[in-house]
Amino acid sequence: MSKDAEKSLRKRNIFKQSVRETLAVGFWGYSIVKVFIYDVDIYFLSTYFPNASWVIRFKFLFMLGGVSIAWLFTKNKDIIGWFMYIVFYPFILFLWKVPRVLITRRSWIGAFAFIGGTLLFFKSLKFNIITSALLLIPFSVICQSSYPVALWISIGLLLLFLGILFFRSFYFAFKPSTLFQIQSHVINKFWDKSRSIFTPDQEVKDLPVEKMSTQQLQKWSGNLQMAVIFNRTCYFITAKLRDFQKSRINVIYYVLNFVVIVVLTVVVFGVANYGLYKIDSNSFSVSFHPRLFHFIYYSANTIFTNGIPDFYAVSSIARFLSTIEIIFGFLLLVILFFLVTTIQSSRHTEEVDAVVKAIRLQGEILEKFVESEYKMTVEQAIKELERIKAGLVKVIYYLSSYIERQDAT
Q: Do 112 and 241 meet the contact criterion of CB atoms below 8 Å apart?
């Protein structure tokens, strides 16, 4: 293939990837806004194209037609691949794209924090799913239903969700963080479950390398490589943990956690007040016909005790909700902020030190294991692997060079 053809093919692939990425981001952005925030499509058409509002009722057919037309000019595997990419885009983004970018750019601190957060999320997957249901189900009911009983139950579930969220935040403020312990636990589990990968076969354990057959040498060097890589990885992780500790990125993690709680508090009370308004519109004095967005705006002002002149609570229940939100705002701005940023941050160094010690101990165990099973030190093992031109020796040298730089500093 000529250079011009390669250049043209590269540009075409980049264009396809850009279009696919734009469609995926647009689809999920529209879906999130449509479901959780506002009917943006209805608002756009009713505002700028009022005579075309009927399009909303047939949007699925229009989408199906667009896909069908695109299918005419593409291969089956391409359209199926695009469909799967768009549908599973959030998983692709968080489990593949973000880690790959961080690792390829050697942003190890960011990669370490991201991987730790991902492990923490899946460790609490059961809790996350249950609490998400407590939030999303009543949210959807309040937005779609007009039955008072369903609305009251939904308001109660939203307040229950918020109570659980605050209790969990207080609880974990005084409990040692599992962010680093998970990684240490994973390494220990890997050692327990995969020890056979590092152990040489009995038939070649005491056999000199020169007398091994090609198959025996390949198996022996493969096991030795895995043992050395795991040893170097333990020291590599401890070095990255030290960098992570010095970066103070944990402060960003705690602040982001605090911001998420603030946003959820505002949204929960906004939706709860919207549900109360749907039950009894006289609960609020308002000079216009409010939508969900207006109640979230009202909630954001209430939590910071900033009243809106033409939008305020009238009924006892509405005022009671406003009072509760102000109390939650006080907890957020005074107590919770102090707990999350001060108490947890002060424990950060001790926790990292403990995990570094545990992982480094695992590395030392691997060193003794190599000496016992292979009758050589790790340094001698690296030189031997280089001599026989083992396939992963470059990876070993990369990890070792970084560890040496860390030791030198």
A: yes
